[in-house]
């Protein structure tokens, strides 16, 4: 199974993507995670990408397509694409790659959430800088405030979760990524829109109803 999770920053793509990997035994390919790994490693690609990420802008298409191509060459399972594609050229690049690999795209799932809730979720997100454990002050705080349950370090906001950067990320989503919904509606791949503003379990149940019939 190959599918795309499409949605604004904070819509729950990462959260639902992780649940899908458990349910269907597929890989979650998050370009955001790949870029953050590169930043952490201090590679030239990571240092370059960080400038775009910190400003809430998109990393250039050719960089992203190179990363995705590298992962896809190694993966033998199905894939849920999380945060990719984000532009029409990326979608065209993915289409060409999947055709080349003879791995058809089964579905696009759009996770739809209003701006106010997106901002609330992102403002509440905390990540442990040491071990990567994730928290949210609204629904999954650490047992002791300000102390990671796993390693004891202090969970922090993601650098690009600052309010001004989030506003820019939302604008970039509207300008460059939301047009992908029409792009895929005009393609043979089915597009499903789910109401992502409800609880995580309800959203996951809706997605499972759509995808269980096409599971491998
Ligand atoms: P990326 O890491 O992809 O970030 P994003 O798309 O902005 O998405 P987020 O990670 O903020 O949110 P999400 O939808 O995954 O939600 P999550 O599940 O975490 O990209 C970061 C940057 O990298 C980009 O800005 C760009 O610079 C660059 N980049 C990445 N991919 C690129 C590409 N393809 N092309 C070019 N540049 C690229 O949930 C958010 C919070 O809400 C969490 O705390 C979670 O616990 C909570 N939550 C989730 N679901 C619910 C729910 N149902 N109810 C209540 N809370 C919930």
Uncertain segments are none
Major β-sheet annotation: 5 strands, parallel
Number of helices: 9
Order of helices and strands: EHEHHHEHEHEEHHEH
Description:
This protein has 216 residues and is α/β, with parallel strands linked by helices. α2 crosses α3 and α4 (61-74) packs parallel to α5 (88-101). The model has no long low-confidence stretch (mean pLDDT 96). The protein is globular, with a radius of gyration of 17 Å. β5 (125-127) and β6 (134-136) form a beta hairpin. It has a five-stranded parallel sheet, sandwiched between helices. It has a two-stranded antiparallel sheet with strand order 5-6. The chain contains nine helices and seven strands; from the N terminus they run βαβαααβαβαββααβα. The structure holds BIS(adenosine)-5'-pentaphosphate. The site of BIS(adenosine)-5'-pentaphosphate has 32 residues, from α1, α2, α3, α6 and α9.
Summarize the structure.
Helices cover 49% and strands 14% of the residues. It is of the alpha/beta class. The strands form two sheets. The chain has a five-stranded parallel sheet with strand order 2-3-1-4-7, sandwiched between helices. A two-stranded antiparallel sheet has the order 5-6.
Task: Jot down its keywords.
two-stranded antiparallel ribbon; 9 helices; 216 residues; alpha/beta; 7 strands; 5-stranded parallel sheet; binds BIS(adenosine)-5'-pentaphosphate
Write the SSE topology.
Layout: E1 2-6, H1 13-24, E2 27-30, H2 31-41, H3 44-54, H4 61-74, E3 79-82, H5 88-101, E4 107-112, H6 115-124, E5 125-127, E6 134-136, H7 163-177, H8 179-185, E7 191-195, H9 200-211
Parallel strand pairs: 1-3, 1-4, 2-3, 4-7
Antiparallel strand pairs: 5-6
Helix pairs in contact: 1-9, 2-3, 4-5, 6-7
């Amino acid at each position: 199974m190959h599918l795309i999770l499409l949605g604004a920053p904070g819509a729950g793509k990462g959260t639902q993507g992780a649940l899908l990997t458990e349910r269907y035994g597929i890989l979650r390919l998050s370009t955001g995670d790949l870029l953050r790994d590169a930043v952490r490693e201090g590679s030239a690609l990571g240092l370059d990408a960080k400038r775009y990420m910190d400003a809430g802008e998109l990393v250039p298409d050719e960089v992203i397509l190179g990363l995705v191509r590298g992962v896809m060459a190694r993966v033998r399972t199905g894939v849920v694409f999380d945060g990719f594609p984000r532009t029409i050229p990326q979608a065209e690049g993915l289409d060409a790659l999947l055709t080349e690999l003879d791995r058809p795209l089964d579905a696009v799932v759009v996770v739809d959430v209003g701006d106010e809730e997106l901002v609330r979720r992102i403002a509440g997100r905390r990540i442990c800088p040491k071990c990567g454990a994730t928290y949210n002050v609204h629904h999954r705080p650490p047992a002791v405030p300000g102390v990671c349950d796993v390693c004891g370090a202090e969970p922090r906001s993601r650098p690009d979760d600052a309010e001004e950067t989030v506003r820019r990320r939302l604008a970039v989503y509207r300008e460059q990524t939301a047009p992908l919904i029409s792009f895929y509606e005009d393609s043979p791949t089915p597009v499903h829109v789910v109401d992502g503003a409800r609880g995580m379990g309800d959203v996951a149940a809706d997605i499972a109803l759509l995808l269980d019939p096409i599971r491998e």
